[in-house]
Amino acid sequence: MTSAEFLLWVRGPGLQIAAVIFAFGIILRFFEIYMMGRKKNLSAKRASGTGAGFRTIAKRFLPADSETMRRSTFTIVAGYIFHIGLFVTLFLFVPHIQLFDALTGISWPGLPMPVVDFFTVISMIALLALMWQRLTKPVLRMLSTGHDHLVWTLTFLPFLTGYLAYHHLFVPYTWMLAFHILSVELLMILFPFTKLMHAFTLFVSRWYTGSMAGEKGVKV
Amino acid sequence: MANDKSLIEILKSRGVSRRAFLKFCTTTASMMALPPSMVPAIASALEKARRPSVIWLSFQECTGCTESLTRSHTPTVEGLIFDAISLDYHHTLQAASGDAAEHAREEAMKENYGNYLLVVDGSIPLDNPGYSTIAGISNLDMLRQTAEGAAAIISVGSCAAFGGLPHANPNPTGAASVSDIITDKPIINVPGCPPIPVVITGVFLHYLTLGTIPELDELGRPKAFFGQNIHDRCYRRPFYERGQFAETFDDEGAKAGWCLYKLGCKGPITYNACATMKWNQATSFPIESGHGCLGCSEPDFWDMGGFYTALSEPTLDVQRAVGVAAAVGAAAGLAVGAVNQVKKKRAQSNHETVSVDDFKEEA
Known about the structure:
CATH topology of the largest domain in chain B: Rossmann fold
Structural class of chain A: mainly alpha
Helix content of chain A: over 70%
Mean pLDDT of chain B: 86
Mean pLDDT of chain A: 91
Largest interface: A-B, 47 and 50 residues
Distance between the termini of chain B: 114 Å
Number of helices of chain A: 11
Number of helices of chain B: 17
Oligomer: heterodimer
Strand content of chain B: 5-15%
Structural class of chain B: alpha/beta
Low-confidence stretches of chain A: none
CATH class of chain A: Mainly Alpha
């Protein structure tokens, strides 16, 4: 297989397969989760939970209290850096916007390449730091499973291959670009069936937590 | 044609001075990425070089490669070098036709067996030999016959090198490249649609002067000419870095000469000398005249999702597939959810109330 054939495959059939599994999986998981339902709340509501739910979504962007912050500074800071970097590289890199535009018809302005490059590097550093922490802290290490390492690898590879492709390192760009797209396709295929699904369930579960507390009369 | 005159004698007879000749040798050395110390070696090799016999076979092609080479510019030293080789067979350029032409090829093959250079432009149809024949001989047979006694093969143009346009999906003739068929000879791929003339002559010169095959990349292309990425050498690269892109061919960005990535430029995946050596006596190259690179020196460039599709865009329809997948996912989710509901209800109805007394009895 030449690099051109490989690139053509990942941009065509490969992307189709990945997108189909991704869309199928996400929708399946959503229906599965929502149809589980909840037990009927028999107690009388003290207040409406709707507002509390939305306030919780916003509030949880900040660390809950100084004690949590003190105990988990490293995780919170590295986690934030990674997620901001992820947002910038995924949504503000012009070739990516071009892809979203081609798929959805929606376009927005991007950032200059060196800025995106900077965020790519700090995201990778944050991911490596989090993995280092996972491997060196006894408790975290005990709690870690193969699933965690798989998810980390799936997330790290698109950053690494994207960085190497942009800088034309090691192998001709065509190969690296194809590897980059392939790594994203692997991520998309496993996304709905792993912890990565949190990207979609996160806000719903935050809202639920907040609204339940609100209904019980907790000031949120 | 007799091969008695040396190259330098031919050049002299065409009015090329010694100074011009040495200048040309220096340019050639730098063009082929050879150290300056190689200049005298090139000069002496060229001085001694006898006119090598060259057989040029044209198969499924458009003659663009020959046009590129012969009409590219007013006679230059490169052009004269090309004149100076003994082009014993080239059915577009030769005066002879019919049996006489074929006879010339057979003669050249016999006289120079094991030493002649074979140049091929065009792809070879493998589906039905009748798709392309010359003097009643199928392209495949002619290539096999002629390649047998060749010292080396130069595949000129993307069709000969990779299959090119005839190989484009759905490849109706079963077009194949030279290297798909001939595996026991050194093959130099000089792709491009067409290749830069100076690159074609440069490869000839390398072979003439050093008698060796230049260093090749993974696709069999001389690294001296195909080692550079168009995107890396593009004068519009700073606009790419800054995030300034032309959105259409006539917007302000296009007028300001911004990057053509969004308009489908294939520069990032293309390795060729266009951005450095340029075309038409180094006047410009496609990106400079406002059009994105088509990636013509790369395999399958016709199938790269369309000339005006950006590299990061999909090449097939993804939306419809995603729509169907989402619908199937919803149906599957509803089914799984319904099964879960049934399980839950069954568990509730099977639920037996257990009191402390039951345990006491058991104990």
